[in-house]
Amino acid sequence: MVITSETNDHIKRIKALMEKGKSRRKEGAFIVEGVKMTREISSDKNAVIYVSESFRENSDEFSEAFVISDKIFKKITDTVTPQGVLAIVPQKKYTLDEILDCEKGCLVILDRLQDPGNLGTIIRTGEAAGIKGIIMSKDSVDIYNPKVVRSTMGAIFRVPFYVCDNLEDAISDIKSSGFKCMAAHLDGQVISKMDWPEKTAFMIGNESSGLSDKVSCLADERIKIPMDGQVESLNASVAASILMYSHKLNTMV
User: Fold this and answer.
1) Can you name the residues that pair with 206 across neighbouring β-strands?
2) pLDDT per position as a tens digit, 127-180
3) Checking phi first, is residue 24 left (phi over 0); if not, alpha (psi -120 to 50) or beta?
4) 212/195: higher pLDDT
5) What's the gap between Cα 31 and its chain centre?
6) pLDDT digit string, tens, across residues 43-82
7) Burial class (CB in 10 A: 0-12, 13-18, 19+), 33
8) Contact 127/192 with Cβ under 8 angstroms?
């Protein structure tokens, strides 16, 4: 049977999860789009997979999926050129203690980050750089926003993260577990002179205003990336990427 109505319960559920963070939090679920990312979760028995009518005509993959008419599928997808596959996936929950349970490594602490693309890129680069996890303030962009999920290219399934109610308290716990917190700040020490501790947490602030005073004051040290020309700051995801790889290269055995 092919789903052809926008009032179908499946379609209403997909649209709610696609558009509303409140619905995602209430259900504890989110949307992934595309063949590659759906393949990564196809073994999850709690995932619900959907394919477009034209996808089904050309492929037997995801044989248990619900089929949606092309017209309706185009209306509910968040991508410009949909691949004809999406899924509803249970959210994964991590605890701060789980993330901090390591002998060495790198963390990224995000204070009020707002851009979905920035967050997705940080998660994706974080996996490549081998970080131990991401700690986020609750007023950051929703990590399960479809644009965030899509830009992680699947890394959201593998990089641990924790959204905290009180970022200052979380930073205190992070420091107590042996991590040195380094705040990306215009008044910081140039990182070319740094010798990173094995357990380092980089603190990245809001795209327009940077780290709040309350958060930056909790840092063990303030750091900055050297820049030529008249550039005053870098994109948040670019800065985070440079710092993560700086730690990776500096601490490799």
Assistant:
1) 210
2) 999 999 999 999 999 999 999 999 999 999 999 999 999 999 999 999 999 999
3) alpha
4) 212
5) 13
6) 788 999 999 999 999 999 999 999 999 999 999 998 888 9
7) buried
8) no
Rounded to two decimals, what is the model's pTM?
0.94
The tokens describing 175, both together, are: 């420091």
Torsion angle of alpha carbons 124, 52, 78, 154, nearest 10°? -10
**Structure confidence at residue 233 (pLDDT):** 84
**Radius of gyration, alpha carbons of the chain:** 20
- Helix 236-251 and helix 116-129, axial crossing angle in degrees, nearest 10: 10
Amino acid at 175: K
- What is the average per-residue pLDDT within 87-115? 97
Torsion of CA 218, 219, 225, 231, to 10 degrees: 10
Question: Which string of DSSP letters, residue by residue, matches the chain?
Answer: -EE--TTSHHHHHHHHHHH-HHHHHHHTEEEEESHHHHHHHTT-TT-EEEEEHHHHHH--SSTT-EEE-HHHHHHH-SSSS--SEEEEEEPP---HHHHH--SSEEEEEESS---HHHHHHHHHHHHHHT--EEEEETTSPPTTSHHHHHHHTTGGGTS-EEEES-HHHHHHHHHHTTPEEEEEEEEEEEGGG----SEEEEEE-BTTTBS-HHHHTT-SEEEE----TT-----HHHHHHHHHHHHHHHH--
